[in-house]
Amino acid sequence: MKLQRLFPRATLALAVAALFTPLAQAQSLLDMYQAARGHDATYQAARAEYEAGLQRADQAKAAVLPTVTLNAGVNRTDQEADMASGATTSHDYQTRSTSLNLSQPLFRPANFATFRQGAQQAELAEAQWLAAEQDLILRVSQAYFDVLTAQDGLTFVQAQKTAVREQLAAAQRNFEVGASTITDTREAQARYDLVVAQEIAADNDLRIKKLALDQLVGLQDARPVPLAPAVALPAVAPQDINYWVDQARTQHPSVRQARVALRNAELESTKAISGHLPTVDFTASRSMNRYSNGGPNANGTDSANATTIGVQLTLPLFAGFATQNRLRETLALEDQAQAQLQGAERAVTQGARAAYLGMLSGLSQVKALEAAEASSQSALDANQLGYRVGVRINIDVLNAQSQLYQTKRDLAQARYNVLLSTLRLRQASGDLSGKDLQDINTLLSTAPAAPATIAPAAKPAQSK
């Protein structure tokens, strides 16, 4: 897989557009993901590692391709010779030499094993890149829904503060006309002060979550689009745990990497065994020499050319037991790689099962909380009516209000967790991609509500 296929022009255009989105405009989950692809340092490092892995794979091809070298040199020789007559002769000359040499492996098992390892290296790089893609999808989604969860939490706390303030005012009026005791007012005041403290904590939590999202996607004041109201959450499909387990054992990036490691270990054993085998190379060379002053024999030779073609056989005889020890080492490493593959398969099997059950549990929890929300609303209505007619006390209403808004917060968080569980199940099966974010994007509101904000809190009302 080439990098161009992973970064089509349309995708890059979306990423650039997301980076320059106006601050006041909300961004969808897919917008956030595209922005993060162009900003996140971890992802950029993974992309560079992928490119390096492809280059390492191409380097392995050199082991089976011919090697061609060109040598050139200029030498000056000062030659003196003592003759039998006792005379001494001297001869100086210059040599300019050029040679072209070619070597083509014919039988080199280690080289061909290295070539096959190169193909494995390309698959390893692709598996690592896929893991980085899936990790980024989950990190962006987690940060995105963390902001929405914190935003909903602040919204519900603010709504609860308004309801408690109204209950406090009602308790004060009833106390003033003698319809209730000071206890009701004190209880409402205490609950109001508690909710104000919760509002401050919720506002701080929202600010922190937004900072984390901004840093991840490279935007300022990122505004996630919330879920559409009453949207139907996606169900598990297919509802067969064995399907997800089989998918994970087949295509999960960690299993693919472990399989590549095992095949590479087996090829290392092949290379170690080849230390006992002969090697055969085809060789060819062409040399050209030019002389001055008659050459080495002073016989008037100005040049000498030679062409050599042959086959070279090399047979290893003894290497100090290095080959045998290397083979024992590679066999042990092969056993290690086999055990690591089994461990990876078991881990992804467990992860797929846990993700599948987590998805089912999340969907069931949403249904239960929806029923609990309806029941809590009915309980609050009944307590408010009972308080007005005098059969319920103020603390009953306050407790019912607290229960209702806590249920609303839990329900909102559970819905976001279901969507995250969908992505985690895809990741656990090794099938998570940008398309899954597009599916979630269809569940987002087309008219996002304004994010919750906190105004300076008014001074709590004091009882008389």
From TrEMBL:
Residues 1-26 form the signal peptide. This is Channel protein TolC. It is found in: Cell outer membrane. Pfam families: OEP (PF02321). The keyword Transport applies. Gene3D superfamilies: Outer membrane efflux proteins (OEP). Keywords: Cell outer membrane, Membrane, Signal, Transmembrane, Transmembrane beta strand, Transport.
